[in-house]
């Protein structure tokens, strides 16, 4: 399924990562690797659940000062196509359960590039107001920072 970009509802960010697609995929799907880049440093990430299959739970926790971890993301995977695409939403939780406060659905695509992997995050919101809020909360800085962290992690391994 090809997703169409709706400028009133969607935000996208992409980056060329100079590492093989398999390495980028593994950094996304391996809990220990994922915890190293998912939240902008110096905040820390802990994966509470990562069942990468349609309907599987996806939960992360965050510690901003090295103290206790608190909730960060509670979501559900909608698709996981090996080394090609991961789709998740916080409109649902694991097992297809409706979430209390749906906000976004994200489609992450991984494509081969002559220099490595073309990584694209397409984030869809239910309303223009939610899209605007996400933009104003720093979508490009936050998602850009974690993609940079992902790139550094996998590029130093290759």
Number of helices: 4
Order of helices and strands: EHHEEEEEEEEHH
**End-to-end distance:** 31 Å
pLDDT averaged over residues:
96
Strand content: 35-45%
- Major sheet: 7 strands, antiparallel
Per the principal axes of the C-alpha atoms, what is the gross shape? globular
Proportion of helical residues: 25-40%
Structural class: alpha+beta
The stretches of 5 or more residues where confidence is low (pLDDT under 50) are: none
List keywords for this structure.
7-stranded antiparallel sheet; alpha+beta; single chain; 158 residues
Give a short overview:
With 158 residues, the protein is an alpha+beta fold.
In words, what does this structure look like?
With 158 residues, the protein is an alpha+beta fold. 26% of the residues lie in helices and 40% in strands. The protein has four helices and nine strands. The chain has helices at 21-29, 31-34, 128-136, 139-157, and strands spanning 10-17, 44-50, 57-63, 70-81, 85-89, 92-93, 97-98, 104-113, 116-125. It has a seven-stranded antiparallel sheet with strand order 1-9-8-5-4-3-2. The longest helix is centred in the C-terminal third of the chain and has 19 residues, at 139-157. 24% of the residues are buried. The model has no long low-confidence stretch (mean pLDDT 96).
List the helices and strands and how they pair.
Elements: E1 10-17, H1 21-29, H2 31-34, E2 44-50, E3 57-63, E4 70-81, E5 85-89, E6 92-93, E7 97-98, E8 104-113, E9 116-125, H3 128-136, H4 139-157
Antiparallel strand pairs: 1-9, 2-3, 3-4, 4-5, 5-8, 6-7, 8-9
Helix pairs in contact: 1-4
């Amino acid at each position: 399924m090809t997703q169409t970009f709706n400028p009133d509802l969607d935000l996208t960010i992409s980056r060329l990562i100079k590492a093989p697609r398999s390495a980028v995929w593994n950094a996304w799907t391996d809990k220990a690797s994922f915890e190293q880049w998912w939240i902008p440093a110096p905040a820390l990430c802990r994966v509470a659940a990562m069942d990468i299959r349609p309907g599987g739970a996806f939960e992360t926790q965050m510690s901003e000062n090295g103290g206790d971890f608190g909730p960060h993301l509670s979501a559900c995977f909608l698709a996981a196509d090996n080394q090609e695409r991961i789709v998740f939403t916080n409109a649902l939780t694991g097992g297809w359960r409706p979430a209390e406060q749906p906000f976004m659905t994200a489609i992450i695509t991984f494509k081969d590039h002559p220099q490595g992997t073309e990584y694209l995050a397409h984030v869809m919101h239910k309303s223009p107001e939610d899209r605007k809020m996400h933009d104003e909360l720093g979508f490009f800085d936050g998602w850009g920072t974690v993609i940079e962290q992902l790139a550094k992690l996998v590029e130093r391994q290759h």
